[in-house]
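name: query_chain
kind: protein
chains: 1
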Amino acid sequence: MIESIMIAELAFLRNSFQLMLLLLFQLGENRYAIDTADVVEIVPMVLLTKIPAAPDHIAGVFNYHSSIVPVIDLSQLIRGTPCQTCYSTRIVIVNAAIVNAAIVSSVAADDRFDRHAAQPLGLMAERVTETVKADANRLESAQKVSQVSYLGEPFLDEQGMIQQVHWRHFVLEAQQAVLFTNGEN
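structure:
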């Protein structure tokens, strides 16, 4: 009887605490995090090719495993200043599915196009050096402090506040800038 109660309590605890692994980075003195569930790889800074007339936060594109990958400068987007080039500045590669209906309809005739295939997207950030675990239920119930769609719920750890970044909110802009290709150079 006691064992069945303990098993039930453990099951309840397991279900009530769903841990998320978040990748931390810093922009200036502020700490931010993105969910690692969609992170494919973290690569060192590489030489980027600038895109004429692209918004300032689109840092450029680079060749990633024979795909042209757009890179969003998170510091430029959030703070208005470009990422500093230092040893801990990284490009975080995430999976970004094409969701823009205009792009889908314009390439639907192309047999090589798969609208459900993920496309790599680079997120440039400073001081990408560690991860932290956070309770997903607690993050979902946290109060949002910013009206900016890509800035999510803040939370605390031993070192202070961390602002969650929902990178999917700015993927559409990168797609509309026609930065994604069909994986060709």
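note: Confidence is low (pLDDT under 50) at residues 1-7, 98-116, 178-185.
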